[in-house]
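Minutes, project check-in
Item: structure for the 51-residue chain
Input as provided by the requester:
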Amino acid sequence: MRHEGGVTQAYVYKEHQPTNNISKPTETIAVYNVDKEAELKEKDRLLSLEL
């Protein structure tokens, strides 16, 4: 199961800020998803060795 960010941003022109800036919650969700996928792959590998 993956976590998803539920963020809908309103368009506000910001002239002096980075274009591809991501928020801390978005970063946290992305890191969680990658770590969880690696954990599930490892569990799958261990299960296949047991069978």
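Outcome recorded: The first helix runs from residue 24 to 50.
No further action items on this chain.
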